[in-house]
Design goal:
- With 221 residues, the protein is mainly alpha-helical.
- The protein has ten helices and no strands.
Length: 221
């Protein structure tokens, strides 16, 4: 499996992952944990809940042993559980518990902690808690900035969601500013002819349209 690559044989790939979990001799636990933790979000892209549940159960069994894994692995397990949780209050608690697993933010775990804050912010946003949503979204982006991670792929959905949230809160200018900053970073580190750059421009265009429609509606009164 090539990390991050979309393939048209994903059903066969998921079957292969399931066979690996059931049949492989697990003689290198750190690499096996990494394998499981990379497979889960890939399955999430296709809403393959059966496989996602299988990975969660496997991680639960492995991480019962204190000598296996670390705080980040246990935080990820809770984050995975939150992904499949249908009750908002329980999903929020799981994300908060995941954050509580990590006492010290370091270069090694900053990306994970940033993602956890972003996920928690998204849950608060969906469930009508804008102040808490803003707090965690801003913390997630602050960590990316602090650890020089704004150029990585994770920053795009985080900043795009934050910009849309600001637009919903009648502050589109701040959202546009964040996206323009991100555009410059992607152009500097990668190119302005890549999919990541295009995604940011698409979100910018959406906000411009939303803002224009809002202004037009206001002008009719």
């Amino acid at each position: 499996m090539i990390h991050g690559m979309e393939v048209d044989y994903y059903k066969k790939l998921f079957q292969t992952i399931g066979n690996i979990i059931e049949l492989i001799e697990k003689d290198d636990i750190p690499k096996y944990l990494l394998f499981l933790e990379n497979a889960f979000p890939y399955m999430d892209n296709y809403n393959y809940h059966k496989g996602m549940n299988g990975i969660i159960q496997e991680l639960k069994c492995l991480l019962k042993t204190k000598s296996i894994g670390n705080d980040s692995d246990r935080a990820l397990l809770l984050d995975f559980q939150a992904t499949l949780e249908t009750k908002p209050e329980k999903a929020i608690k799981l994300e908060k518990d995941a954050l509580a697993q990590i006492e010290t933010i370091t270069v090694d775990n900053a990306r994970l902690v940033s993602n956890l804050h972003a996920n928690l912010g998204g849950l608060y946003r969906m469930n009508g808690h804008p102040d808490l949503a803003r707090e965690h979204m801003e913390k997630s982006i602050s960590l990316l900035d602090q650890f020089n991670l704004l150029h990585i792929n994770d920053s795009i959905p985080q900043i795009a969601n934050y910009a849309m949230f600001l637009t919903e809160q009648q502050k589109p200018e701040r959202g546009i500013s964040e996206l323009q900053k991100l555009s410059g970073i992607i152009k500097e580190y990668h190119s302005d002819h890549c999919l990541d750059y295009a995604k940011v421009q698409e979100t910018l265009g959406t906000i411009y349209l939303m803002t224009a429609k809002s202004s037009a509606s206001q002008n009719t009164f």
